[in-house]
Amino acid sequence: MLKDFISAGGPLVLPLILCSIIGFTIVLERIFYWINYKSQFDSVLVEKIYFLMSQNHVTDALNKIGDSKDPSLLCVKRCIETHQKIKPLSLESMASQTLKPTKKFERALETIITITPLIGILGTVLGIIVSFQSAGPDGMTNPAAMMSGLSQALITTALGLGISIVLLVFHNHFMKLADSTKEKLEEELTLFEELS
Given this model, what pLDDT does residue 22 score? Predict the structure, then answer.
């Protein structure tokens, strides 16, 4: 069945299948990343640390942060360990480093989303060329060859668009998660900047 599908779609079905494998592998990695990342936020601990630091109990706050994975607390901890106090500019720098992994593979996914419909359109053009080549000077001499070319055109177009559409939905969701995470991190770090 798959072999028939690949042969009916022409030579560009294989690059489309490769793009879909790479794209959906990235999607799975991002899903597991976000499930893990969301579980690291600890708003209650952030409030406790803020209270301790507002009372100038910096050492106690650092001890309480301990091995917390909360992104904003990691920024605060690194900032204090580096500068012995909170520096707003340093917090911003550490926040951007903390947020870098939220955009991992973004360009690769965007490239696949862009290129798969283009490969599908190229397959359409090649399929139409095959269809026209089957027509002789006396008209359509080989209807099977013409149908084969049209089949190739339709399969590659549908496959390219289908892959792109599904990946685009996931990409937009991941970008929304990255944006909301950035807002949450900035909101929490603004509290700590007030203490500087």
Answer: 97
Give CA–CA dist 30/34, Å, rounded.
Answer: 6
Residue 56 pLDDT class (50, 70, 90 cuts): confident
Q: Residues with Cβ < 8 Å from 47, sequence gap 6 or more? A: none
Residue 69 identity? K
Q: How far is CA 164 from CA 122, 150, 152, 178, in A?
A: 15, 21, 18, 21
Residue type, 127: G
Q: How far apart are CA 84 and CA 91, in angstroms?
A: 13
156 and 10 in contact (C-beta within 8 Å)? yes
Going by pLDDT thresholds of 50, 70 and 90, the confidence category of residue 163 is very high
**Nearest of 161, 191, 194, 165 to residue 43 by alpha carbon:** 191
Confidence of residue 6 (pLDDT cuts 50, 70, 90): confident
Tokens at 31, concatenated: 């899903």
Contact 146/152 with Cβ under 8 angstroms? no
pTM for this model (two decimals) = 0.80
Bridge partners of 135?
140
Burial letters 66-98, b for 16+ CB under 10 A, else e:
eebebbbbbbbbbbbeeeeebbeebbeebbeeb
**pLDDT exceeds 90 at position 100:** no
